[in-house]
What does this fold into?
Amino acid sequence: MTVRVRFAPSPTGYLHIGSARSALFNWMFARKHGGQFILRLEDTDQKREVAGAHEAVMRDLRWLGLDWDEGPDIGGPVGPYVQSQRAELYREWAGWLVEHGHAYKCFCTPAELEERRRAAVAAKEPFVGYDRRCRLLTAEQIAAFEAEGREYVIRFKAPLEGETVVEDAIRGSITFKNEQIGDMVMLKSDGLPTYHLANVVDDHFMGITHILRADEWISTAPLHMNLYAAFGWEPPVYAHLPLVLNPSGTGKLSKRTQAFDDAGHEVLVKVEEFRDAGFLPVALRNFLANVGWSFGDDREKFTIEEALPRFELQDINPAPSRLPYSKLEWLNGQYIQEMPPEELAQAVRPFLERAGYTVSDEALLAIMPAMSVRLKRLSDAVEFLGFLGADEKQAPLAAGDLVHKKLPHERALAAFREARDFVRETERFDLPTIQEAFYAIGERHAENGKAGPFLGKARLAITRQEVSPPLFESMVALGRERSLARLNDAVALLQS
Ligand code: GLU
It folds into this structure.
């Protein structure tokens, strides 16, 4: 049997990180078994439709590196892969259910249903959902309603007693009492299907073998099993994935349940937010694979390819899993360190540009080796490399910032003059040459004969930042002309 799995998001306009984890597990399962990963858009709830939503979800999946074998954009043998384009098929199968006695037309109006609900509340009776009265309509009554032109929905006839057992590959057998399931709507009065009908019909006709989806859908599984039985179709294997919790594990992941993560940053929820914050897809994949599943051998950093041979559904932990963002920061930092400097420079460039910095490729490349160990997120580069940006964007300095206990005013002025002259005159403006000269200047002028006080102040004069890359790398990145200009500014400040 060829494994066929699907990721079936409802287009909300963005990809939630919890959904991305579902997509990843489906993708891993398909790749592990040499099967197919299918993307299907479940857009039958037109009220919730958001413009551009299809593109957003595809863009984010692609960015994450989860490619699909069949889908809305590339088609495939069992398409179309957008539910709103399959309405005819759902109508046909809803009709089939009615014809074969598994479903019925319900003419109760929304107003009538609401009235019954209110009456039940007023009488303090438990309201158990639809009271099934149309299930008992005679052929004459139905014909009369239809002659009147009354609108109707199609409801599935749930078994009235007994139990439905769902075999879940992660949770084992789960037993549901049929009396709690209710006669759910399959086809709405506008002729569009509900999620249940469309989902089951599509999974069947798309040849889906395994359903890996979020835990929140578990309550729909018995209804879906009953639908498969009514159709006489073999159900796929179900595997409900554990809920994704916020970093402290106190609630579902959302900015409302927790605003800041365990690393002190704003909690991110959408995949696009992770991308914009400067996380690498490789780090995010690794991180998500650790949510509810683990590689074993106490190993937290691994590539998805390395994980595939070990990935088994029964090893997924059914307990809700929290998202430890600090782990993601750590992983991202590790992957950043492994990037070749050219690639890292390319990756941080958009962040710098967005912040309004114009930095030459050469300068950026020069600083990368010093940078890579310091970045947790690519966006950290904006803060670190702010000194490369336009001069008018730099923080102002005061003369007092350039003096030190061991390097009082006159000494600081002499040291900065000498440093400036060196930069102006030196034949070689490279790291070892600058380093040697600046150490000598620092040692000569400080009261304690140590280079530290001057080097610290020179770094501030060059980078204008408390937190910055090391001095010599920064100077090389900034280039001779701009370094000279900043040392000139320092001298002018100390002279004034
Ligand atoms: N469209 C559903 C969602 O938005 C899919 C649920 C399922 O995978 O069955 O998550």
Observations:
- The chain has a mean pLDDT of 94.
